[in-house]
Write a structure and sequence with these properties.
Elements: H1 2-23, H2 30-51, H3 69-85, E1 95-99, E2 105-109, H4 110-134, H5 144-150
Helix pairs in contact: 1-3, 1-4, 2-3, 2-4
Amino acid sequence: MKDYFIRLLHYDRFANLSILSVLLQTKDYAKAEQLMAHLLTAQQVWFGRCIGKPANITTLWPDWKADTFEQRINDNHLQWLTYLESLNDNDFGQSIHYKNLQGDDFETKLTDILAHLINHGTHHRAQAGQHLKLAGTDLPYTDYILFARQH
């Protein structure tokens, strides 16, 4: 279980950096930038929930700039990787208790949070990619199977 989610985290970083490389070369990328900022913020929020220390974030749609994303992508990746490496296989079936940004209490299995984290990233990268494509950019291949073949 651990190795599976670690591999997905590596894929997530690969795909985020791939989209970022195109985003930084595009003139009209405001919407794609906003979507990527949201994706990276959500990763921090979920990480905070999993370690029992809510992230110091008040909005899920921050006004972060693309030139800060590479560091954020790498920082998020390292935090999540370090966290997953510290777990044993039994920990993945445990429930995480947390509050959403509105203060409502929830309890969700770690495996479901991790699945959401990866799927959420894929969803918003696709949205960002669509905006970049409409701006005339050729998109990189970010399919998981491409990553799997190369790694």
